[in-house]
Amino acid sequence: MKNAKGIAKYIGRYVFRPAIAESRIESYDGEVVRFWYESHEDGKRIEEVLPVLEFIGKLVRHIPDKQFKMVRYYGVYSRNRKAKAKKVMSVW
């Protein structure tokens, strides 16, 4: 597990919308990971310290199945909307 921090950074950069931002990971000492998140109930900052394997286990749960279709652009962000927005902006 010497390179676990490097692996976590790599996964965080290339997975579509990572489960946890790299900036929320406060420390890693080879055995435990210290991170924080905001509670959905009251918006308070919660700090946790987990063993590395437990942290990775929680992170891996967010990786979608191989056949899972991820919707990247929907609604306002859809490609169709972008084309229409460009057309409207060209009129201005």
TrEMBL record:
A Pfam family of this chain: Y2_Tnp
Endpoints of the signal sequence: none
GO biological process, one term: DNA transposition
GO molecular function list: DNA binding; transposase activity
Protein origin, superkingdom: Bacteria
Annotated ranges, domain Transposase IS801/IS1294: 2-82
Membrane-crossing residue ranges in chain numbering: none
Name of the molecule in the record: Transposase
Organism (species): Anaerobranca gottschalkii DSM 13577
